[in-house]
Known about the structure:
The protein is 19% helix and 33% strand. By secondary structure, it is an alpha+beta fold. The protein has an eight-stranded mixed β-sheet, sandwiched between helices. Strands 5, 6, 7, 8 and 9 form a five-stranded antiparallel β-sheet that branches. It has a four-stranded antiparallel β-sheet with strand order 1-2-3-4. Helix 2 crosses helix 13 (674-692). The two termini are 38 Å apart.
Amino acid sequence: MTSSADASETDDPYLWLEDVTGDEALSWVRERNAESLGRLTDTERFGDLRDGLRAVLDSDDRIPYTRRRGELLYNFWQDGEHPRGLWRRTTLDDYRSGDPSWELLLDVDALARDEDENWVWAGASARWPDYTRALVQLSRGGADATVVREFDIEEKRFLTADEGGFTLPEAKSRISWVDDDTVFVGTDLGPGSMTTSGYPRVMRRWSRGTPVDEAPVVFEAEATDVAAFAGKDRTRGFEREMVGRSPDFHTVEEFVLREDGSRVRIEAPADADTDIDRAWLLVRTRSPWTVSGTEYAAGTLLAFDVEGFLAGSREHTVLFAPTASRSLSGWSWTKSYLILTVLEDVATRLEVLTPPAGPEQWAAGDWARRELPTGEAFAEVAVVGTDPDESDEIFLDTDGFTRPSTFARTVLGATADDDAPLETLRSAPSFWDTTGVTVRQFFATSDDGTKVPYFVVGKDSAESGPVLMTGYGGFEISLTPSYSGVMGRGWISQGGTYVVANIRGGGEYGPEWHTSALREHRHRAYEDFAAVARDLVERGITTPGQLAIHGGSNGGLLMGVMITRYPELFGAVVVMVPLLDMRRFHLLLAGASWQAEYGEPDNPDDWAFISQYSPYQHLSADARYPALLVTTSTRDDRVHPGHARKFVARLREYGHPVEYYENVEGGHGGAADNAQRAFQWALVLEFCRRAVGNAPE
């Protein structure tokens, strides 16, 4: 068998494809794009599919989700007339009307035209508490790197550096408000200012009107760390500044910065998640932690008095304890309450906790607890926004695989006896006919006996049929039930079944679900996905020839492993913005930051297990692969497009047919606007329909 499994980078004939914008590499990209697009977009059906998906993405009936800043609700909106988007705001009362009169703050399309730049909105951080200024971030083509400009919200214009405005050139910067005229900033200021992962190594306190490179340093990380960070909690009466570093993707060393410049370390486990809010320090464990003689399991949430903790006290209370089926997905504060988002076999529940007045009341049960109703089974309920500085208002979004989103508002504890009634502010339309469509959850058995959940969305037929399946399995990211107009209209309503596999490496069952597939245990995530594929066939839901799969980023790596280790299980594979060359991932863009997840390729012991699955090194001329489509983005500055390019080049060298599409912009998301998103998903779905037989011509 001819294989590249033992090849090192010195033997790689395709390193030239890592030259992102090199003439030779881009010429190769244009040739591959032309070949594949000529084959996949040459029918009226493709045009209809693309236009139908674009109608979903651009629909005026979509929910304009908002975020409260002071008295106003802010929204960023994209549609067919404004593909780059509008930043705008309105009042709650006007929003309730159903047809609000939006006050336009910034038209990104107009800005891009005026400045002849391919601007993509990357967010804005408004200055608390007056919200009259914002630090706006703009990306060229959707890259992670952004330019930063201070924006005067009242005058609706950017402030120049000559006016004292905070401005930064393109970089992977970190910037946040300290006070009206000061920010914490980490940015690319030349050698030594960034880590090997490409993120800020040095954090500074930058005063308005002064050169950023002369701003005093408040914290420095190591060059091999992922990044440094700094921030300020400006809550009245609890003002604190925090600085720290992330030695790797899963650990943090954090300090409270005192007024005299001294630092007090938060002595929580390095791999724990911490949150300081007013008097409270919350610690969510990611590995077992012994406190005051009691060992707490991974995924436990503990509460401490923050100043007491910094002084050495370990008096605490348990706010959440995980079980085999129950995990803590996250939490949010309002002014008076703590809201826990809990997953129970991957379905969401919300719990509202009322904290005691102080640590002297921390006897068992002093944090009052109640459940906030979340509706139907297999629903996802997300806390979209709170206003913890001012009120107990919360905004919620509820949806499910067959249930369009509902955007609602309530105020916790509005009366002495109860919360305010849940007020539906918007309901999204249904973009596809769900008649006869069911949502079922099954459990497959992985190679080591672990039960792996997965969702099946489609018509409950006695006959097997085309299935499109996805998974991720990394970085403790959970795939929860959610409504997709694109997948519904483009796949399920055309007769296909959609499957979501909740494999290890994700966070569906808490930190241990993630850590059980880290580094040398990575193979478990791949075994889980393969187990789900087999289970679908055993249940008669599909056949290998009718089973298509797709995944992006770490999910793209998952797809690459499926191609090279389990090709017989699938009829088609779509690999999107992927990692594939695990021998060199740490040398490309942000790859060095992911070594805690995958291992260190330059360490022989780590390479011994990484090399067992690295897809690029395991391609073979003699193998029989399913139909393949690989996509990426030239402007992806997180996962290098060289992974996808080289993988396709080697497949072609070995004589295997493969379709390829590289969008010239779009960043790690693969698309910069709705037109590009619709085109990309139409490409994916059309490819799968042709490969596994969904919907006749």
